[in-house]
Write a structure and sequence with these properties.
single chain, 189 residues, mainly alpha, 0% strand
Length: 189
């Protein structure tokens, strides 16, 4: 779905050892480590928050809150080999807290998704076109699963844990989403 070089770049950005190293630097109050951590994780944090909250301002607030929280509570982090799962779990918890605070769940305006996609420097023009079409044609859950798998590089099992869904549900929703996309592009049915 996304170009091979884009996927390789995302995997390099989210390299567990590099992200762990950044967090260890943040624990020592190294602002350069925070900057690198932000560079490596911001697209995933913002994209995931946006897919949950469906509002750009709320997603930006969560992103801000996430990095403030990481800076102030990095000493509580313990390396476990999957730092991006930790990153998205913290992001998810902040999103759920925001939803509880406001008691809302609104639809995301299409222009918000388009702004996110066009502002992401890690995407090629082809990736942007494909992802825009995905976002228009998929349900909320399908969109989250495709974003986490294709954009952030998570495995289906990790997505199931993160979204608190059975693995079979994640797999079926992912496959359903891919069938929709193939139908749109005139590919295999």
């Amino acid at each position: 779905m996304l170009s091979e070089t884009s996927m390789e770049k995302r995997k390099a950005d989210c390299n567990p050892d590099a992200v762990d190293k950044c967090i260890i630097g943040i624990q020592r109050q190294d602002s350069g480590a925070l900057e690198e951590f932000y560079h490596r994780t911001s697209a995933s944090v913002y994209g995931f928050a946006l897919s949950v909250l469906k509002n750009t301002q709320d997603a930006e607030d969560i992103m801000h809150d996430f990095y403030v929280l990481v800076w102030s509570a990095a000493d509580k982090y313990r390396p476990c080999g999957k730092p991006m799962a930790w990153v998205l779990t913290v992001t998810r918890n902040l999103c759920l807290q925001k939803i509880r605070e406001y008691g809302k769940k609104s639809d995301i305006p299409q222009e918000d998704w388009e702004n996110y996609i066009s502002g992401n420097p890690n995407m090629t023009a082809e990736d942007r076109v494909i992802l825009s079409e995905c976002l228009r044609s998929l349900s909320d859950e399908e969109r989250q699963i495709v974003m986490l798998h294709a954009v952030s590089g998570f495995k289906h099992r990790e997505i199931a844990r993160l979204l608190e869904m059975p693995l079979s549900t994640v797999l079926s929703k992912y496959n359903r989403a891919m069938k929709k996309l193939r139908k749109i592009y005139g590919g295999e049915q």
